[in-house]
Design goal:
The complex is a heterotrimer of chains A (about 450), B (about 375) and C (about 160).
Chain A lengths: L9 H33 L4 E2 L2 E2 L2 H7 L3 H12 L2 H6 L4 H22 L16 H10 L11 H19 L17 H9 L1 H12 L3 H32 L4 H6 L11 H14 L11 H4 L10 H26 L13 H5 L2 E4 L5 E5 L13 H6 L7 H24 L10 H28 L10
Helix pairs in contact in A: 5-14, 7-9, 7-14, 9-10, 10-12, 10-18, 12-14, 12-18, 14-17
Chain B lengths: L1 H4 L14 H4 L1 E5 L10 E7 L2 E8 L7 H4 L8 H5 L7 H16 L5 H29 L4 H21 L8 E2 L2 E2 L7 H17 L1 H6 L2 H7 L7 H7 L4 H5 L6 H4 L20 H25 L18 E9 L4 E9 L6 E5 L1 H6 L1 H6 L7 H7 L4 H5 L1
Antiparallel strand pairs in B: 1-2, 2-3, 4-5, 6-7, 7-8
Chain C lengths: L1 H15 L23 E3 L4 E3 L6 E3 L9 H7 L5 E5 L11 E6 L8 H5 L5 E3 L14 E2 L1 H5 L10 E4 L2 E4 L1
Antiparallel strand pairs in C: 1-2, 3-6, 4-5, 5-7, 8-9
The chains are: A mainly alpha (about 450), B alpha+beta (about 375), C alpha+beta (about 160).
Chain lengths: ~450, ~375, ~160
């Protein structure tokens, strides 16, 4: 915002308001309403208590205290919630935003300075929102000789692939994953294989020297580190015998795999840093040599989308590390069971002097339990933990472990300089593949010795 | 142009340069580039190897030597410190020594010690800034923030003495302009001791970092004979095994009474050239402590000049060791208040000669490391 | 193995520094303290007194309108022009005093060195920005005002590091 404002003309102002109103109305009626009708046609409507839940019925039930909880629970367990909010995009974007904030403040503390502190009352919490608004308000400049369809599509493809990666990660016990595939790990490898293609396409379509060099370097880097990535994870697959990510976590209920596969964990960590283009492997965006590498020509919100995709990828890789090596959501369950009086008698609401005058009975309060009667079974001693307890405590363990891994991903940024291309290729093709094979031999030895695996001691 | 004067190095085996127009791409590491400073390097690359490098300085040329001819000897002082604004004492030093020779005045003892202290402080300030940019060229953001922050300790000292954080305009022919403030020795000693503790921490995170060593060792190797033949100076010379420091070989002011140890490394690669200034900084802290002890506790700090000082029909050349290398000043005067001709000979421009010689056959990834390790300051080289 | 120990030592050094206090001065909530009142010159001894070279301060009861400050600045920045002032002083028959343009001044202090009548000093004020170029030209009346400089923090060096507090 400049201090010198352009001259204000009432006519232009009214014209701007009218234009905005016109376009909003047009888009909503011509595009929004048909979209909603098409979506409603394909969405399966749930059945609660024998009644088909149409939109009108849902709004009526929202004000009936007896039916609120089942209504919200059906929404919680629907596909849309899974994709958009909980283990999918919303959750990942929240962790990505937290990662960006923590990265800037932690690096600042390490470098003895403050980092963002002005935007937002507490130590710069709203800085990311400020940056987002700034990026949206900037003009998107496309180079004249660029390949326009590919150039426009590149950031969107990047975010889409990163979101596809996020969709494969199980977060909590009970099937909380967007896409529950039996060959989950293989699908992860397939999605990771898309990233070099998108990078080289966006670099090539910009038609300029610096993105060209950056794109070639990114291609070298990502392709040469994919093989150690796949090999280092195969050790765990040999030990568990399954490719399903949820089952890999279930198999770690007694001990995490990092105890037996430390070399695999180190190799995977290094290849993870290389795939994410974090320092010390941030050659493709080497600022002092090739301006900004393959991101040079992106401006405005395209750059914002690429950064969003990058941090989503960071969360997904850290979550993958936690799932495969650190035991996912396993850990002692510490969330206490819900008070039975709350469920049977209801919640007492006091008036302003403190005497309870109203009791709100909400049958089926357990919001996160899959089956509403699980608390009965827990009372009778047949069930140890309800699924709601497992869910909340599992999510908290998962988030704690992921945050720990993200801390260790962010730390090398303050400590190491950038690595050079030939050193990178040497490491990727010689040393890491060797270490990954050593890891696989250890895993095979453990299985054949009968220590772990089907029919083993542990 | 450069091919006639500088012989080419041996290309790495297997690198055949054929079909020159087809494979070679010209890259303009220009002034608008985060890795170039105020200078342009036209680099011709074949894949990842640099075939030819042509430095193109001159973007910051102001004609300072010509402007100096229209200012008298006193008003030249804020003018001539502008090439390197934070190392201003070391740039003014040869000029001030030259004018004192021309006019013929003696400098009091306490003023000489204060000059030495501020010159060493300025050397550390400049080297920290250079080290910060070296870190960021290699992608090490912590190495950018730590020197820039620790340099504040010394800039604070300079502000207490001279009143300005940069462009001090502190030296004057005949001494210095003002005395140090009261209880300055304690404050200076405390901050210099803490500064020395801080720069020793750089060893763990930067100089012993295996990635940095793998990146800069054996790149841009300048042998001892080539260093002398190409006319390099300062830290570049000492990193190639030549034991030459003007403070020791041609001492000026009170450097002959202080114990100055010259740091020499034999490797001659970028790693040695990046390590020598750091060792020089540790040496400077020692010199400052010695000078603070030996300084006479009272005395005048300025010999009064006659108004409108002018030299006779004379010329003089003095040189000192600045942060970049030998900085010299050649003054021709013809009995007027203004100098007839004033030439500043700076270390940065001398070291630039080695750049095309060193970059031939290097990988593109090594270019920022080699370029900035030549202790090059673009503003000073262009004057 | 040397590589591995080098990497671990570097990471260790990084983690250690998470406990060191931050060095930043949070301007404008904190402002640095100065010792003394600003850069001054004593023409009797020919030596100046150390202080911050900030905005100038003109003492109207000492200035005689000799123009030496303006002449000294001519070779440096040409920032001082002599203007007529309405007040009459005994020592200033021509009634002219210096007017300083801070758009051109480089704060070198040679004008203070040139004044032989203890009339021109420099003070501690450094916040001189303005929205217009004309606002940067300080008339002799404006130069007479002693600035109120807010100073509250200084450099502290203790066990946990150096910081501005």
């Amino acid at each position: 915002m400049s201090v010198i404002a352009p001259k204000f003309r009432l006519g232009y102002f009214l014209k701007a308001i009218f234009d905005n109103a016109f376009w909003i109305l047009t888009l909503v009626t011509l595009a929004g309403i048909p979209a909603i009708q098409i979506a409603l046609f394909f969405m399966p409507l749930p059945v609660i208590d024998g009644e088909l839940l149409t939109a009108f019925l849902a709004f009526t039930w929202l004000f009936n205290p007896a039916m609120q909880i089942p209504l919200i629970k059906t929404l919680l367990y629907s596909d849309l919630f899974r994709i958009a909010a909980f283990p999918g995009f919303g959750f990942a974007a929240l962790i990505a935003a937290g990662t960006i904030f923590v990265e800037r403040k932690m690096l600042a503390k390490l470098q003895l300075r403050v980092g963002p502190f002005y935007c937002g009352k507490i130590e710069g919490i709203l800085q990311l929102a400020g940056d987002g608004l700034k990026l949206i308000s900037k003009e998107i400049i496309i180079p004249a000789k660029a390949d326009k369809p590919l150039f426009w599509a590149a950031p969107v493809l990047f975010v889409g692939t990163a979101a596809a990666f996020v969709a494969l990660i199980p977060v909590a016990p009970g099937g909380w994953v967007v896409a529950d595939l039996d060959v989950g790990l293989l699908a992860v490898f397939a999605v990771i294989g898309f990233f070099p293609i998108i990078t080289i396409l966006s670099a090539w379509s910009a038609n300029s020297k610096f993105p060209f060099i950056g794109g070639i370097r990114a291609l070298h880097q990502m392709v040469s580190f994919e093989i150690p990535l796949i090999l280092s994870l195969l050790g765990v697959v040999i030990l568990t015998g399954t490719l399903n990510l949820s089952e890999i976590v279930e198999s770690q209920s007694n001990f995490p795999w990092i105890i037996f596969m430390p070399i695999g964990a180190i190799v995977f960590f290094t290849t993870m840093l290389a795939e994410l283009e974090r320092i010390p492997f941030d050659l493709p965006e080497a600022e002092s040599e090739i301006v900004a590498g393959w991101l040079t020509e992106f401006s405005g919100m395209m750059y914002g989308l690429v950064q969003l995709g990058s941090y989503l990828k960071l969360y997904a890789f850290a979550a993958l590390f936690v799932i495969i090596f650190l035991g996912g959501w396993t850990g002692p369950v510490f969330w206490p069971p819900l008070d039975t009086e709350l469920i049977t008698e209801g919640v007492p609401i006091p008036n302003y002097v403190g005497d309870p005058i109203l009791t709100v009975a909400t049958p089926g309060l357990p919001l996160f339990d899959k089956d509403p009667n699980e608390w009965v079974l827990q009372e009778q001693g047949e069930l140890v933990y309800t699924s709601g307890q497992l869910l909340i405590s599992g999510v908290i363990w998962f988030v704690l472990k992921t945050v720990g891994v993200i801390f260790f991903i962010l730390l090398p940024r303050g400590v190491f300089p950038r690595i050079r291309l030939d050193m990178l290729l040497h490491i990727g093709w010689y040393k890491l593949i060797g270490l990954a094979f050593v890891n696989i031999f250890i895993a095979l030895g453990l299985v054949y010795a009968g220590v772990i695996g089907p029919g083993g001691i542990l | 142009m450069t091919e006639q004067v500088i012989p080419t190095k041996q290309m790495p085996p297997g690198l055949q340069v054929e079909n020159i127009d087809d494979r070679i791409m010209t890259l303009n590491v220009g002034p608008q580039h985060p890795g170039s400073g105020h200078m342009r390097i036209i680099v011709k690359i074949d894949g990842d190897y640099i075939v030819d490098a042509d430095p193109d300085p001159g973007y910051v040329h102001r004609g300072e030597e010509k402007m100096a001819e229209s200012r008298n000897y006193i008003t030249n002082i804020p003018h001539l410190e502008r090439p390197v604004i934070h190392d201003s004492c070391n740039i003014l030093y040869p000029y001030v020594l030259g004018v004192e020779d021309l006019v013929g005045i003696e400098v009091p003892e306490r003023a000489k010690y204060v000059r030495v202290i501020t010159a060493e402080l300025n050397r550390c300030i400049y080297i920290q800034y250079w080290l910060a940019i070296y870190g960021i060229f290699l992608g090490h953001s912590t190495m950018f923030m730590w020197p820039a922050g620790d340099r504040e300790l010394l800039i604070d000292l300079m502000e207490k003495i001279t009143g300005a954080r940069v462009t001090h305009a502190y030296f004057i022919p005949g001494g210095v302009r003002n005395d140090v403030p009261a209880n300055f020795e304690d404050v200076c000693l405390r901050q210099v001791n803490y500064f020395e503790k801080r720069i020793k921490e750089y060893a763990d995170i930067f100089y012993d970092n295996p990635i940095l060593k793998a990146r800069t060792e054996d790149t841009g190797v300048l042998s001892k004979e080539d260093a002398i033949r190409l006319g390099t100076t300062g830290s570049v010379l000492r990193a190639s095994g030549v034991d030459y420091d003007i403070r020791v070989k041609e001492p000026y002011d009170v450097y002959d009474e202080l114990d100055v140890h010259t740091n020499v490394l034999k490797a001659g690669d970028s790693y040695a050239r990046s390590k020598i200034p750091w060792l020089d900084m540790l040496e400077s802290c020692n010199i400052i402590r010695q000078a603070l002890e030996k300084m006479p506790k009272s005395g005048s700090i300025r010999t009064k000049l006659k108004p409108n000082p002018k030299g006779g029909d004379d010329e003089v050349y003095r040189r000192v060791e600045s942060g970049r290398g030998a900085a010299g000043c050649h003054i021709i005067s013809k009995s007027k208040p203004e100098p007839y001709r004033l030439k500043l000979s700076v270390g940065s421009f001398r070291n630039l000669i080695a750049l095309p010689y060193l970059l031939k056959g290097e990988k593109l990834g090594n270019m920022p490391a080699v370029y900035w390790s030549l202790n090059y300051w673009p503003v000073e080289a262009d004057r | 193995m040397g590589t591995a120990t080098g990497i671990i030592k570097a990471l260790n050094s990084g983690i250690k520094h998470l406990a060191v206090k931050r060095f930043t001065l949070r301007y404008p909530e904190q402002k640095l303290k100065f010792v003394g009142d600003g850069y001054q010159f004593d023409p009797a001894s020919g030596v100046a007194i150390a202080g911050l070279k900030g905005r100038h301060m003109l003492f109207h009861d000492h200035c005689t309108g000799c123009q030496l400050c303006s002449i000294a600045c001519e070779g440096v920045a040409e920032a001082i022009a002599m203007v007529k002032v309405p007040d009459t002083w005994g020592q200033n028959k021509k009634a002219i005093m210096p007017q300083i343009d801070y758009g051109k001044c480089v704060f070198c202090g040679l004008c203070v060195d040139a004044c032989p009548f203890y009339a021109l000093y420099m003070s501690n004020d450094y916040e001189l920005s303005s929205f217009t170029k004309e606002g940067l030209i300080y008339t002799p009346a404006q130069l007479q005002v002693k600035p109120q400089v807010q100073q509250d923090s200084e450099l502290i060096i203790d066990k946990r590091g150096a910081r501005h507090g």
